[in-house]
Amino acid sequence: MEALSSSSFRHPQLLQVPSLNTRANVKRSPQPMIKANIFKKHLEYSTILNKLDDFISTFLDPSPLRPNIDPEHGMSGYFAPVDELPPTACTEVAAVEGGGGPLPSCLDGAYIRNGPNPQFVEGRRRPYHLFDGDGMLHMIRISGGKATTFCSRYIKTHKHTVERENGSPFVPSPFSSFNGIASSISRCMLTAARVLMGQFDPLNKGFGAANTSVALLPGGGGGAANLFALSECDLPIDPEGRKQKDVQIVVNPLSVLRPPVGVDRAKVPRVGVIGKYAEDDSGMWWMEAPGLNMFHSVNAWEEEGSGGTTIVAVVSNALRVEELFESIGLAQLRLEKITIDVNAHTVHRQPLSTKAIFETRYVYAAMIGPKSIDGIVKLDLSLTQKDCHGDCVVASRLYGPGCCGGEPFFVSKEPNNPSVEEDDGYLVAFVTDENNGESKFVVMDAKSATLDIIAAVKLPCRIPSGFHGLFITEGDLNKV
User: Fold this and answer.
1) Is residue 52 within 8 Å of residue 186, measured between CB atoms?
2) 418 vs 103: CA distance, rounded Å
3) pLDDT at residue 477, as a whole number
4) Could you say which of 173, 196, 263, 339 would form a disulfide bridge with 132 (CB–CB 3.0 to 4.6 Å)?
5) Cα 120-122-127 angle, rounded to 5 deg
6) How much is the mean pLDDT over the chain?
7) What are phi and psi of 116, to 5 degrees?
8) pLDDT tens digits for 112-138?
9) Whole-angstrom Cα distance, residue 253 to residue 62?
10) Is this prediction's pTM over 0.85?
């Protein structure tokens, strides 16, 4: 199942020019046709540009590369990419920690996780950041309490398609491609040349890798749904298609003395609010929120009170946002409750452990270790600071020595029962053991104080470290 696709680059047909006779009374004889083989010309130009790209990587990029853009670091260990895998049977279900038997019936459907998986590795000298990798979806199907098949497929973005046709990576990355005056100007010129020759069309088809997350949204008639893969490398755009400039995390293509993605401390982060049924941005308004660098949101909802409508959100805030692109472990992420007064146009922030009543009580978050995600925690947002001594963690689990996994996804035992307790369900995730190169789909009891693993399915291939996932029920899967 492919979440996104884009048209392949189509080369014009061969141009045939008929031969001309110099004398009308001379018997015609076959003359060789003059063929303008544009495809061949494109290959020749691409070869030249690829050689220049290799030259930039070898002689103009700094040496040694910073660890966060060194392909030797970003494509090894937990992050080493894998090949596509067609639907393959899952043959082993392991009972763990006293569990056993079939998988819970609420898991009938599919778990899909997105993540970076560069399609070119061998002999790569070009700088590479984890956020640059081509998006790959890893999906396990479950039916009747059994894991039936597993597959891994690339998301056919414009970037993936044109680089596959080129035979090597060339799409510039705001995270890794600009490392000084010479290399930055040279890569900009190469990119412009590829655009002019029709090899690359970022304005109309985009340049993102769609490697971050997965979203299921309604679309079409008859209850149909669309599955989308997302990326976080593009700036926000307004309804007219213009990129928003007034953001603290900026991309400045003219800043060639350093990587163009950075933090402008002269700008103050802002929160924008727009009506859910708005048809344009005329009614949108903004509030300054110094120090609020939202990385991910847990949940958001509206509350009605005597003072009017209030918007409440639980978000992760990067206290040291300038470290986010070098090492996420240094960004000091913490959860905060954001309260927006719609009438007064004010925003109030407080740590999640402050006494409050939350629409969402439990949060399941990833623990980021020195290399990757090495465990998960469960937080109870209803606890007061006195009750938990400043920490709302009520359960946790480490994946184990040498193991890494993705963020957990919660699946309720009874999703259609509004009276069921909020944490009465299971956490699912992919976990990879670097010691033996094996990956598993693990199912954990969300109510357990230690998030006990009740079952694990051995997968037919290793899964590299990735980002966000999504569980889709069998009913919703049939709508896609």
Assistant:
1) yes
2) 23
3) 87
4) 173
5) 65
6) 78
7) -75, 135
8) 999 999 999 876 789 999 889 999 999
9) 19
10) no
Report the alpha-carbon angle 238-239-240, nearest 5: 90
Could you count the other beta carbons within 10 Å of the beta carbon of residue 330? 13
pLDDT at residue 115, rounded to an integer: 92
Q: How many CB atoms lie within 10 A of CB 161?
A: 17
Residues in the chain: 480
Residues of the chain with pLDDT under 70: 1-42, 92-101, 123, 219-223, 232-262, 306-307, 322-331, 352-359, 384-390
What per-residue confidence (pLDDT) applies to 332?
72
Question: In whole angstroms, what is the distance from residue 453 CA to residue 258 CA?
Answer: 46
Distance in angstroms between the alpha carbons of the first and the last residue of the chain: 10
Judge whether 172 and 191 are in contact, CB under 8 Å. Answer: yes
pLDDT value of position 469 = 92
Is the dihedral angle over the CA atoms 32, 35, 39, 45 positive or is it negative? Answer: positive
Beta bridge partners of 267: none
The pLDDT tens digits for 101-110 are: 579 999 999 9
Q: Do residues 197 and 45 make contact, with C-beta atoms less than 8 angstroms apart?
A: yes
In the sheet with 393-398, reading across from the earlier edge strand, the strands are 362-368, 373-380, 393-398
